[in-house]
Amino acid sequence: MKDIAAVILAAGKGTRMKSALPKVVHKVCGVPLILHVVRQVKRAGIKKIVVVAGYRKDLVVDCLKNERVEIVEQARQLGTGHALLVSAQKLRSFNGDILVLDGDVFFEDKTVLRQFFTFHAKRCVEMSILTTTLDNPFGYGRIVRESNEKVVAIREELDATPSERKIKEINTGIYLFKSKNLFSYLKGVKKNNRKKEYYLTSVVDMYLQKQKNVGCFNIDGTHAILGVNDRVQLSAIQKSLQAVIIREHQRKGVTVVDPANTYIEDGVAIGRDTCIYPYTYIEKNVRIGAGCTIGPFCKICSHSFIKDDAHIGSFVEIVRSRIGQKTRIKHLSYIGDATIGRQVNIGAGTITANYDGIKKHKTKIGDKAFIGSDTILVAPLTVGKEAKTGAGTVVPKGRNIPRRRTAVGIPARIIK
Fold first, then answer.
1. Residue 204's domain is classified under what CATH number?
2. pTM over 0.70
3. Do residues 241 and 29 make contact, with C-beta atoms less than 8 angstroms apart?
4. I want to staple 366 with a disulfide (CB 3.0 to 4.6 A). Which of 96, 292, 385, 391 is the partner?
C-alpha cells in the first residue's frame, strides 16, 4: 500500500518487564516482539515502515537487520507523542495516511489491520482509533463516549476517574492519521502533569477539540489484540501464538498428538503426514520432511534439516544437523553438527562429541551405516557408507571408519 506508511513505537524500556532488555526484543515463539509487529504490518500490505528506537537501540537494530525498515532514534524517552514527532524526519514528503502502533502488539486475526484501513477509508475521517473491549481493562486507556456514542476522550489509567475506570472499551494504541495536520498538531502537545511525558492521546484530544472527524473502529473479542506490559502478558501472547502456529501445521497435514504439550517456534516447516508426539521442542529455522515421526521428549534445534520418513525418538537432541531419509535415531542420543546419510541406524546413547572446548567440529556418517549403542564419535571424523561401530565404542577425532568396515573398543580399532 503506497498510500499508507507505518510508524512503530519501540523506544521504551518497558519497566514492568523487570528486565535489562528493551521490552520489544523479548521473544515470542523464538522471534522478538518487534519483528512480529513488523511482519504483521508487512502482511497488511504496507511497505514504508519507520521504527522509533531508543533504549538499547543497538538490540532493536540487530533484531531488524534483515528487514527493510527505516530506524530513527528517540534519544530521550519523553512519551509516545514525542516518539511519533521524532519520526517526522522520515515522513516529511509523505502525503498518505500514517498508521501508528506500538512495538509489542500482537493480532490473533491477521485481517484486523486491513479491516481497520477499510473502515478509515469509507468514513473519510481525519483520524481513526482501533479499540476493543476487555472484561479486565486494567492498565489500558479507556474510550470515553457521550450518550450518543460519540468519542469525546481517551483517558489513561492514571488519569481516569473511578467511573471511567469501569469502562471496558479500551484504546489499543493503534491509530490511523491523515498526514496533513498530524505533525503540526504534535508540536503543540504539552507534557502530562503526572508523568511529565508527551502523550500521543493528547493529539487525539486536539482532533476532538477542533471538531475534526474522528472514527472509532471497535473489534470484538474474537479478533483479540494483545499487548505486553509484563511477563504475564508476554506468556499470554506466547500461548496464543503457539496455538496459531500448531493449527497452521495441522491444517497442512501434520499430526500434533498433544498440542498443549508441544512447542513449535515461528519459522518451522513440517511436511505432511509427519507426526509430532508430546513434549517435543522445535526451534525456528528447522525443516522436517514428510512422513517423519518426532518425539516424544525430543528437541530439534535451529538450522537442523530432517528428510522424509526419518524417525527421531525419545530424549534425542538434534543440533545444527542434517538427518537423511529413512534414518532412525530412536533413543537417548545427542546429534550435534552432524551430517547423517539415508537409512542410517543410530543406536541408543550415541553422542557426536562436537565441541573440543574451543571450536565446534563436524561428524559425517554415510548411507546405511549402523552405529552401535553408546557409541561416542569425537568430531571431526567420518564414518563411511555401510560402516558399523560396536556397542560402547569410542572413536577419537580424525580416526575415520572406512566404508563397510567395523570399529570396536576404546579407543576404536578396525576389525575384519
1. 3.90.550.10
2. yes
3. yes
4. 385
